[in-house]
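Re: the 186-residue chain
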Amino acid sequence: MRRLLALLALITWGSVVLAAPADYRLDVARSEVAFGFDLQGIAARGTMPVKAAKMSIDLRDVARSEVEVTLDAAAATAGVIFVTQTMKGPQVLDVGRYPEILFRSTRITGDLSGAVVEGDLTIRGITRPVRLNAGLFRQRGTDVNDLDRLTVQLTGAISRAAFGAGGFAGFVGDRIDLNIMARIEK
């Protein structure tokens, strides 16, 4: 009996040691990078498409995971055409000079049901640290043991002014709320 328990412990320990981060790809058509902001006291919302994503996720040890995402700021929308045009202009995102926004994770803590993703966010050529809360879920309709298709939800907030995007402060609040729904698969 002791030998059997020792063998089971060795097998379990060995599988944990041998586990490695797996590469996942983003399902762009079913994912959304949404942001919310205050427009003269009215809650407004916009979206921004993902241009590229590299994700390596370790389901046994999230700290060994890494994420790098490039957003297409030039294709962002903010609901109303004049708000979208203003957002893309030189006083806010300045997409003529900075058409992309880049995020690179630097540290991930927690577990699959509640992690914190810390990283460097670059907007308008200015890089600042950000913190996002993350949860990892099986996709609807998948088998209980299917970890090849997952949904990652990330939430957090940033300051526009911290990235030099503070134009039109009298009309638009400084806080930008992020709600990212990423559907990923192996």
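The helical segments are 2-18, 81-88.
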